[in-house]
Amino acid sequence: MKSIVIKCGGSVMEDLGDSFFESLSELKEEGYQLVFVHGGGPAINKMLELYQVPHEFVNGLRKTTPEVMEVAEMVLSGQSNRKLAAMLQKQGLKALGLNGSDAGLFLGEVVDQEKLGLVGKISGVNRPLLEKLLSEELIPVITPIASTEDGTKLNVNADYAAAAVANAIDSEHCIFVTDVEGIFIDGKLSSHLDKKEIEQHIKDEKITGGMIPKVTSAMKAISQGINSVMIVSGKDAFYKNGTWIGTNVSAKKEVFN
Ligand SMILES: Nc1ncnc2c1ncn2[C@@H]1O[C@H](COP(=O)(O)OP(=O)(O)OP(=O)(O)O)[C@@H](O)[C@H]1O
Ligand SMILES: [Mg+2]
What CATH number does the domain located at 3-250 have? Predict the structure, then answer.
């Protein structure tokens, strides 16, 4: 079974174009099974503002008070997940919406209670459940919410959640679909960046905000055995005629003599 985990950014959910779905079809035709993990950033912000819940970001991660958690879950499970599952269904794909906190799908641990509140990292993924769904030709669409051993719900950055899924089921690729074509450095799109370059760009503040959890989880996924990680746009084709379009992240650039 070869699979691809696709993290769909909340930033681009409303703008997924026909060419995005054509790329998905091409991957399906090549025999890949698809698993989706999605974010919901802008929709969560909108709802927090509507409910006048104060909120802030620390290094691209949303500080999560219990009030923020309640709103985040409402939006992720009730809106973003439903929207993405429906869009995939419309394309003839058998999408099945799932909450990461259900059935031990995502087991989580608090990252830094004082600094980030209920932000979690994933300590376990229910691999047998995912494999069962994939064997039934279903396409899991998962919210980035984890549950601790004692049932506390944690807000996990969807980029980290996607990387954890990719590692848990030994996917060949992990794709981060976002609202930009890839990583831009000094205004220019980079087709390929390695760990060392990424670390330097973060230091120089050329990679900031929401791109930080993306590259950090990309590097983690690679260190744990994923072949290729791409950061791509959901507004255009990201895979066409066997070629990826976006920024490829790797451990170390290959040197050709
Ligand atoms: N060097 C960079 N190149 C490209 N984008 C960058 C860079 N540094 C920071 N960014 C920002 O990262 C953003 C993408 O991350 P963001 O968290 O906003 O979206 P997302 O992860 O797709 O959505 P969500 O968080 O809702 O799942 C871009 O829109 C851009 O503003
Ligand atoms: Mg993000």
Answer: 3.40.1160.10
